[in-house]
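Reopening closed ticket. The problem is back. First fold of the pair:
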Amino acid sequence: MWLADRLANLVSGLGGPRDKSTGNLHVHVPRARAELDAAYRDNWLARKVVDIVPFDMLREWRAWQAPQEIAAALAASEERLCLRDRLLRALRLARLHGGAAILIGDGAADPGLPLEPETVGQGGLRYLHVLPRGQIQAGGIERDPLSPWFGEPKGYTLGYAIAGGRTIHPSRVIRLLGAALPEDEVGDGWGDSVLQALLEAVDQATAAAAHIAAMLPEAKQDVISVPGLSQHLSTEDGTHRLTERFAYAARMKGLFGMLLLEGDGRSPEGERYQQKQLDFSGLPEVARLFLQVAAGAADIPVTRLLGQSPAGLNATGESDIRNYHDHVAARQTVELTPAIARLDRLLIRDALGRDEPSLRYAWRPLAQASEREKAEVGRLKAETAAMLARDGVVPASILSRGVEGWLTSADLFPGIAAAFGRPAG
C-alpha cells in the first residue's frame, strides 16, 4: 500500500489533477560548451559568477608556517612556477567547463610513468601548465578502494592536436572540478559547469534589466488625435501631406519647445494632443529581485557580485560579507588544500631539495583590518600581556615567546619579523 504524504485540496486543485504544477519534472539538459563560452564572453553576470570565487580564494594567498629562510625558498619556488596564476586560471576554467587540469612537468622522457616525489630535487620542477577540459581526456575512474588513486582517473590522455594522444600518469596531473556530480554519476571524470544550474537565473536577471532598458525610449509618448485620420491615409497624397505636417510640427517642438495644432482640441474639427508616460516605480525592485536570486544561486552576496553598498535603513552588509568570507575560507580548506596537496609536496622538494612533513601553511584571511583596527587590537593584547606578566600567571619565558609570535604575525611594525628571525605573516 502506498501512502502519499502531500498536501491536497480538492477545491483549489492543490496536489490534484487541477494543480498546474503537478506535471513539473526535472530533466537534465547539459549545456553545450559553445553556449557556456558564449555566456562567459558576452554576459557580464555569468563572467562574474565564474571569476569572483576563484579570485577571492587566491586573493590574499597563503602563509607558510616555517622559519624565514624556508618560507622565502618556498615563496621563490611558487613565484618561479607562477603557481598562483596557474591556480587562478585552472579554477576559472574548472568553474566554467566543469573541470581543468594542471600538468606538472619535471622533464621526464615518459610522462606515462609515475612522478615519484623522491626523484624531484631542488629546482626539479620545470613547469606547471594549465589544460582546459577539452585538451586533456580523463580515463576510467579507479574503483578499487585499496588503490591510492581510488576515486581518481586511472590516467589521462592529451589531445591529439597537442601531443598526439600521449598518456599521462595521474601523479603528474592536478585535477580541479567545477560543480560536483552525484556519487553514482561518473561521467567523463569531470564535473558540471557552475553555470549549468545558474544560467537560467543569470539569464533572467540580465533579461529583466534588458527589458527595462527597452522600455526607456517608450517612457514618454506624444499622442495626437486627428479627426478623419483614416480618410487622410486612404490616398497616397493625403498620407504624404499628413506625414509632412506632423514632421514639421515635431521639428517646431524640438526647436522652440512648442507644438502647433489646428483647432481647440475639443471640437470635431480640432486635433487633440496628449502625452502618456510609463510608470517605472516598481521596476527597480523587480530587477533587484532577479539579481538577488542570481546572487543567491551563485553563493555570492549582492554587495560582492555588484560591487555596491547594501540598501536599506541601517544596512551595512557586514554579516553577508562575513558569511561569504567564511564560505570562501571553507572552500580553501575543504576543496583547494586537498586538491593541491600532492603538488605542495613536490613544491617543498623543489624549494628545499628534501621532504619536510611538518611544514604547514595557513590561508590568509580575506577580511583585512584597517590600521586603526590593528592598533586597537594591538593595544588590547599588549594590555593583556602586561597584566599576565604583572600577575605572574604565565611564566615569563613562555609569555615572551607568545608575544614574539604575535608581533611577528600581526603586521604592526614593519621589519620586526626579520629582526626576530621569523617569517612575516
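Second fold of the pair, where the issue appears:
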Amino acid sequence: MSQAVTDKDRVFREDLNVGQLGLISIQRKIAPDYTSWKVSFVRGGVKSEIECDGAQKFGVPHGVDNDSYLAMQDLYLEQGCPEDGVIVFTMYRLLQMCGLEDSGANRKMMRQSLERLAATTYWIGGAWRSHQEDDWIVASFRLIEKLVFTRARKDVDGAKMIAVTLPRELTRNIRNGYFKPVSMTLLRTLGQPARAAYRVIDALRHDPVQHQNRTASLQIGLMELAQRCGIASDKPDKIRRTLEPIHEDLLAAQYLKEVTIVGRGKQQEVRYVFGQGAPEPDAALVDLLTGMRVPLAASRKAALDYPLLVRDGVAQAGAILSAGYQPKNHVGFVLDVVRSYGNGKYQWPEGTRAAAQPEVRNIVRAPLPLDVPDVPVTSRSSGELARTLGFLLRTPRLSREALATLPHHVLVDAHQQVVGQPGQRQDALIETLLKQVEERSPSTSER
C-alpha cells in the first residue's frame, strides 16, 4: 500500500520573492476600482519599487489568488520543474490543492483567479532577487504568462485541462532552490486572510540573500507591513483592526508565540516572536533523487513529502530504466515511480525485485510501462480520475459515479491505457470496467 501523504500533510514551496514583495493582496475583497498600486521600500539594503497594473474587469490579485498561485508553484515542483515553465492540471486538482470543494461556484471563482493572475502585469525595480545571478534585478512580467483552457465541444462542465506558463523569473529561481516552505497543516487550520498573512509574515522572516536563514523574531513598521500584505489603507487604526483577527488566529495556531505593537501613529512597530519551525528533508534521500537527475528543488520536495517511499521508489525506477525503458520525461517518470511506489502501478522487471512488495490479492498489476504521460496521474484522486475517464470514454454505460467506486489503481491503469492510445476505440476496456463495477455493486452500472 502506498504511504504517500495527502495534500493537507504536505509542505508546499513558493518563491521567496512572491511573499516578501506582497505581490498578491491578503484582502478577501477589494474595491471595484482597485486596479493598480505602486509601493516603494528597502529590501536587503536595496531601494525598491513595485508597480502592479491589473485589468479593469478583475482588479488586482487578492484573496484566493494567494492559494491558487501557491498551488501552481507546488505543481511546478511536482511536475519536475520543466524548463519551459509549462504545467498542466485539471480544475479539480487545483481546487483540491487549495482545500476547496468541487462546486460550480468554486470553479467559477478559481477560473477568475487564473484569469486575474494572467491579466496583471508587474514592474519590479531593484527588488526581485535572482538567485542564479546572485543579484537584484529589474523585471517586468505576469504571474501567469500564458493561460490555456482545453475542453471538448460537447462538454458542458467546463475546462478539463488547464495549461499555465509560469514566468521565467519565477521558474528559474525555483529550479535553483530559491523558495521557502509553507506548512499545509498550518494553512488548513487558518481562514482567509490569515492564510495569506501567514505566508507574507513567514517570508519576511527569511533573509532575502541567504534565503535558508530565518529569524526567531521579526520587527517591522506597521505601515511597511501593510504594504507587504497589500492592505489598501494608509490609516494606522484601520490597519491594526485588519491585523488583529489575523494575529489572534496565528497565536491560536501556535505559529506566533507573541505579538507586540509599540509606538504611535504611522511610526508604530510590530514585533513577532515565532513558534513552531518547518521540517527539513533527509539529506540522504535528497542525494538519492539528485543522483537520478531530479533537480535539487524537486528532490528536496519529494524527500520531504514521501520519506518512506524514496529509497525503494528510486531503486525501482533505476531497475526499470536499466531494463531498457526510455521515458519521454525522465524526471517526471522517476518522481511518479516514487510517489506511486507500492500501489501496483509499476512492476519490478523480472529478476530485479530489490525490495519486498506488500502482498495484494485480486489486483491486476500494471505491466512494465511502455509510456508514461508527461503529467503524472497517480497523485490525482479517484474522483478526478473518474471525471477524466468519463469524459475520455464517452459512454453512457459508465457514469462518473460508477467509475469512482473502482479502486484507485484500476482508474490509474485505465487512464494510462486511454491516453496511450489516442483516437482508438476502448470497447474492451469499457467492458472490463463495467464488469468490475458490477462485481462491486450490481446496481452501480445502471445509475
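Update: turned out to be a display glitch only; the data is intact. The radius of gyration is 23 Å. Confidence is low (pLDDT under 50) at residues 1-5, 355-377, 443-447. Please close again.
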